[in-house]
Amino acid sequence: MELIKALVIEREAQLIRVLTENREELRGVPRGKLKKQEKVWAGDWVLGFVTEDGLFAIEKIEERKNLLIRPKIANVDRAIIVVTIKDPEFQNFLLDNLLVIYEKEGVESVVVFNKIDLLITQEEKEELLKWKRIYEKVGYPVLEVSALTGEGIEKLVNYLEGQICVMAGPSGVGKSALLSRITGVELKSGEISKKTRRGRHTSRGVKLIPFGKGSFVADSPGFSKVEAKSLIDKKEIKDFFPEFKNYTCKFANCMHIKEIGCEVKEAVKKGEIPCERYKSYLKMLDTYLEELSEWCK
């Protein structure tokens, strides 16, 4: 029997749905070892056949280029990290953790500031500009959008075209609203808790929504906390701050903390590396430098 190719577009608990090359959307059923090991995830390209009762029997998973841990999704091309300056308040440490995780996975990250329509005062607008400059200086693309008014959506769409993407970021930043705006599929949006000012979870599992020609974007759960150190050895975290790679320290295994001849620390002192990013790095290592207050004011 000749096997056909399909993309796993949904995985929630035991539910698996695939989209075949003929654009048929079917329920997927792993067979043999796959059924026992449960290794099929959203984003997987699989080989199988359509059964008499209309199911897609999955026989083989094609080799993945990556597999993200949270959310669990394979073959991701781009990570769209959604944040806001207000409602909820911006947390650069959370963003930096996500950026480190995606750097490790070899996934290109795009920082998206949503809800720019809420920024009324000059102080709020300057806060956005400050963080935009910081991340652009590091080398990350930064987009400003409003899911409510549609501002900046066209640019975001350009990043999604032809790619398998995942949106990440804390709950309440408007990921579902952005997905609805981009795909035309009405998704349930979370509301901000008046008590905690944090968003409430509105999505379960992972679903890939088709968009344009060969484009898919994941509707995945939001989360308010993720730590790179829980997924990456502390000694390796430095390798996933791209701005550190521009400097050569005296010692190859320099941790950029208290070592002699550390060019990274010197770059922080000179303002070449943003203090905010370096502070996030130290926080990830659970360390603190008293002299840091002298460099970053």
Layout of secondary structure:
Blueprint: E1 4-12, E2 15-20, E3 25-30, H1 33-37, E4 45-50, E5 56-61, E6 67-68, E7 73-74, E8 78-84, H2 92-105, E9 108-114, H3 122-138, E10 142-144, H4 153-160, E11 164-168, H5 175-183, E12 206-211, E13 215-219, H6 263-270, H7 275-284, H8 292-295
Parallel strand pairs: 3-5, 8-9, 8-11, 9-10, 11-13
Antiparallel strand pairs: 1-2, 1-4, 1-12, 2-3, 4-5, 6-7, 12-13
Helix pairs in contact: 2-7
What does this structure look like?
It is built from 8 helices and 13 strands. With about 300 residues, the protein is α/β, with parallel strands linked by helices. It has 3 domains: about 5-60, Nucleic acid-binding proteins (OB fold (Dihydrolipoamide Acetyltransferase, E2P), Beta Barrel); about 70-220, P-loop containing nucleotide triphosphate hydrolases (Rossmann fold), CATH 3.40.50.300; about 235-295, Ribonucleotide Reductase Protein R1, domain 1 (Orthogonal Bundle), CATH 1.10.40.50. It has a 5-stranded mixed barrel with strand order 1-2-3-5-4. Mean pLDDT is about 85; it is low at about 190-205.
* CATH class bucket of the largest domain: Alpha Beta
One letter per element, helices H and strands E, the order comes to: EEEHEEEEEHEHEHEHEEHHH
Number of strands: 13
CATH topology of the largest domain: Rossmann fold
SSE-based structural type: alpha/beta
The outline comes out as: globular
Q: Gyration radius, to the nearest Å?
A: 21 Å
Strand order of the largest sheet: 1-2-3-5-4
Q: Estimate the mean pLDDT confidence.
A: 87
Q: What is the correct CATH architecture of the largest domain?
A: 3-Layer(aba) Sandwich
Oligomeric state of the chains?
single chain
List segments where confidence is low: pLDDT < 50 over at least 5 consecutive residues. 189-203
Largest sheet: 5 strands, mixed, barrel
CATH superfamily of the largest domain: P-loop containing nucleotide triphosphate hydrolases
